[in-house]
Amino acid sequence: MQTISKENIQSVDDFLKLLNLTDYSDCLNNCNLEDLAKLSENDLLELGIQIRLHRVKILEFSKFFYSSQSPTDQTDSEISDYNSPRTIETYDYSNNSLQNIILTSVSGFLEGFTFKIGELGARIGRCSSMEIIIPDRYVSRKHCEIRYENQTKSFEILDTGSTTGTYIRISRKHKLQVGSLFRVGQCEFKVLNIVYSLDGRPVSIELLKYEGPSPMPLIITKGCIIGRSRSCGVCINRDSLLSLEHCKLYSKKNNFYIQDLNSLNSTWIRLSPEGEFSEAYPLAYGDQIKVGAILFQVSPTQTPQSLTREKTIPVSISSILSYTT
């Protein structure tokens, strides 16, 4: 893990590279590090940084240059505790129990950690009372929760009113409904309305692009592709995190769906708006969950060799039995 220190940050470009926000180099090319620490969130917005989470990240980390600790308020000894991969059981379960899953951190400073979650579930957040603690200011104190649903014998996740959201990577088609939220590149969309014909077929879908370059409402009939290419029905060429053809919206039977087109940065479903509880979202093996800067992947306690990301199955007792017998 890279150590944050004043010695290895000599310019604003170094600073943005550390935060993986180099797309904003042009916006901040007239600033030095001392100027950066004096800017407000409104100043950053006027300079062209549209995404609120990125503005907050820049502001928080710029304070590092005038304090003795990093923005996560972690000491070197605290950070070193995360350097060795390990498995953490959130509750004391028998190793023979089939009612558990493994949550593995595949990126961020928790990379290499695995968490075994059983029937009592696990709460995730910054607060010390959480079963999975993420000491990151971009994670809410009580961010999200994984539950075991006894009736369906499966695991599910719900956002518990976080500020920055809980995201699920789309690995297959996902049905959209009024109120659905999804992120592609730097842009976040909300489904405002779906119009149906008299026989119940979806005619058009209305989206609001409320975060990212040029927020605006969109009305899409039948379907389209979202991406940077000018041939896309929704072309957002100012978003460098978008692929040329990133994802597609289409109608089938009585619903609208969204599907990723093997994009570089993936398409993500956001479980709920800022500060609101979400409905429970059923988890499947191979699902990836983004909480702040941490990316988790769901797997069974004993991962079968034949299981791939393209072939996902519900996280349930029956499915574990079928792969372990």
Would you mind describing this structure in some detail?
With 325 residues, this protein is of the alpha+beta class. The protein folds into three domains: 12-68, Orthogonal Bundle (DNA polymerase, domain 1), CATH 1.10.150.50; 92-165 and 274-300, Tumour Suppressor Smad4 (Sandwich); 169-269, Tumour Suppressor Smad4. The chain is built from six helices and 21 strands. Strands 1-3-2-21-20-8-18-10-11-12-13 form an eleven-stranded mixed sheet, with no helix packed on it. A five-stranded mixed sheet has the order 5-4-6-7-19, with no helix packed on it. Strands 9-17-16-14-15 form a five-stranded mixed sheet, with no helix packed on it. A hairpin with a 2-residue loop joins strand 10 and strand 11. The model is unreliable at 1-5, 66-86, 91-98 and 303-325 (pLDDT under 50).
Structural class: alpha+beta
Considering DSSP H and I runs of 4 or more, what fraction of the residues is helical? 10-25%
| Name of the CATH first level of the largest domain | Mainly Beta
User: What is the 3D shape?
Assistant: globular
Low confidence ranges: 1-5, 66-86, 91-98, 303-325
Q: Secondary-structure element sequence?
A: HHHHHEEEEEEEEEEEEEEEEEEEEEH
Distance N to C terminus: 39 Å
Q: Main beta sheet: strand number and arrangement?
A: 11 strands, mixed
With strands numbered from the N-terminus, the spatial order across the biggest sheet is 1-3-2-21-20-8-18-10-11-12-13
Q: What is the radius of gyration computed over CA atoms, rounded to a whole number of angstroms?
A: 21 Å
Q: Architecture of the largest domain, CATH level 2?
A: Sandwich
Number of alpha- plus pi-helical segments: 6
This entry's quaternary arrangement is single chain
The averaged pLDDT comes out at 79
Overall domain count: 3
Output the CATH topology of the largest domain: Tumour Suppressor Smad4
Strand content: 25-35%
Please tally the β strands and state the result.
Answer: 21
